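Budget justification note: compute hours in this period were largely spent on complex prediction jobs such as the one shown. Inputs:
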Amino acid sequence: MSFFISYIMPLMIIFLQSLLVMIAVLLMAYFGIYADRKIWAAVQLRKGPNVVGPFGLLQSAADLLKLLFKEIIIPEKANKMIFILGPIVTCFVALSSWAVIPFAENWVVADINVGILYIFAVSSLGVYGIMMGGWASNSKYPFMGAMRSAAQMVSYEVSIGFVIIAVLLCVGSLNLSDIVIAQKNLWFVFPLFPMFIIFFVSALAETNRPPFDLPEAEAELVAGYQTEYSSTLFMLYFLGELAATFLMCAMTTILFFGGWLPPFNIAPFTLIPGVVWFMLKVAFVFYLFSMVKALVPRYRYDQLMRLGWKVFLPISMFWVVLTASFLLIFDIAP
Amino acid sequence: MFPAFLFYIFSATIILSALMVIFSKDPINSVLFLIFSFVNAAGIFLLAGAEFLALILVIVYVGAVAVLFLFVIMMLDFNIENIKKETKKFLPLGLFIGAILFLEISLMIYTPEIFSNEFRIIGRSYISNLSNTEILGNLIYTDYFLQFQLAGFILLVAMIGAIVLTLRHRDYVRRQNISNQINRESKASIELVDIKLNDRVNNDN
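Corresponding output:
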């Protein structure tokens, strides 16, 4: 009995919590695709999905069913094991990062000391799914897509790391809830605005979103690393990418927009529960992501590398030093 | 009981995947197993209560070093038979290095008193009630500041060396200079000329 209380019960609770977070993320992905398509359609003066269900809301469900019922095709010369593992790794990594995201005060599955490092570590594994898929397909376009993706994700991780360090200097803790609480008086987007811009653009590059979707640039590489994938495996890539995109939206919200905190600490705003504010902010950042996709043309590969290494890296390093000196001179370091 | 159970799972997977690194036929599989054993090592760090080290291991080794490893191995074209012949030549050397490593590890396990307690970061965190990130920071940036800086400089020198070795300036490659492009004005490239009827544009300049 004591074994049940001390081990099985907590395990079951953790399992249920994780399941709940996963369902929330999948719902976000579901409506994310819909919102994405509607926003691009609006920018291009089209209607977007409007046939399946009211306002086309069931379009994503229809796409999901279509993908599920298709046949899984594995190329004859592919490395079967790694070919199947690739999308699974992508999806697993993107979903497992959500374990430490605080949706509201104390609404977090694992409130660990080093939450931000955990996210940074786990999201840096996302590149493996893409590289494994690209290599195992044993075909030219996927391989080139995977190579591009690896170089791109490794380069932009560096500037994301420096942005995170600048934020951490102002917080004094690696815990995500502490980062949100430190923004009680002032959201970090105001004092650290240049870092917000760098983080936003790097997040686009890190999740392979346009204008940095070179790994799957359809004009040159068919569909990049996904070329040989079909059915459920393709869906897992798609899902993993969307979950990673939403993770980056949540990270932007937590690092710069005060997470679950209301914009003003007075009556009508504080009545709304924190999780609503959090989701509204995530939705806002996702809207920005979609608008970028609709408005900006795709970067060329050398321009992408130049932006990462020659522009963002020096600026973010300089800003880290500046933030540290500022905090030290005015003696306001936490 | 439960942590011990997890420890045995992690260490068994580390040993198995380390063996697979050596014995698997495809170099790609070797690298993937190597990455898998890194991740499991991070799991053991977590069990020991060193969460900072665990995540740094994942970020640095799995997220960056092993990606480059995989990158290089995917690009190379291997001939497994040749590699096998080569390995036999280096077998004595490998055994020698392995023996030294084994000796060091067994020395550490059987005579722990020869290592001073200062290195025990995890032990410190239990005593001083700080998180091990803070203790590691204190240790590196106050007690061992000079050594840490020195390590940083060595890495800087290595980085500059790597850049110098690979940097070649090839004249036939056309490069884009973005500030030149932006600063270019219409005056520099376009000249407006009035042309009389039945006359030609003077192209001398």
